[in-house]
Design a protein that fits this description.
Layout (H helix, E strand, L loop, with lengths): L2 H22 L12 H18 L2 H5 L1 H10 L5 H15 L3 H6 L7 H11 L4 H53 L5 H59 L4 H8 L13
Amino acid sequence: MDFATIIGLLFGSGLIGFAIYGVSMNLPGGVMSFVDGKSLMIVLGGTIAATAMAFPVKEVLSLYTNLGAVFKGDKHKDGDILREIVELAYIARKGASELEKSLANINNFFLKDGIQMVVDGMPEDDIRSILETRVVNRELREDAEANVFKTMGSLSPAFGMVGTLVGLVAMLLGMGASGTEPDEMAAKLGSSMGIALITTFYGALFANLFFIPIAAKLRSQIEKRNITQNMIIDGIILLKVKKHPVLVREFLNSYLAPRERVYED
């Protein structure tokens, strides 16, 4: 689980909820004054509909999967992958036949494919070209998925403004209504204006506490996968030319932060 995401969401929601509770204590409806189904329909319904128009169905339907990935986080650790590559470096110096026996024990599919290419005797340049092309195209696919949330983050405030305009129209039409007592008219105007502002509040809240941070988190995960896979590519090439495991370890340590580097054999 990605506890940073969970803590951030709970902490932000808690602070905003506490502020709403404090403000609404003197209101007739209490906290429920900030709950309006019509405003939610305008913001969420409009945002989802516009997003469905902007992206292919497959990318829209991947929202749930990507949302799960945000909260689950990445399970792998680059240090563990580095250790695995160093172990494979010892085996690679014994020959391709020995390296082939270790394929069944490799869990990382990207690393496994690269080792299979080494076992098959493919040239270094071809191995690097194929694997780098896979990294680029994976990044493009994942970027497209992250852009769905980024777009939703830009659309939800816009639909919040749409709801505000709806509320203002209702308020102005109410001002023009005849045969209404002044006190009753003031109450209706206040209610219409409140709903208008609540819709804007919903749009800003969903965008800045949910959609935009999720898009940023997905982009961060993409960058981390790029670093990991580029480290794997260099490791595979070093295995191909049968470099000494110590050299492999020191070279790949360049991809890790100092506190995460591996120093033991």
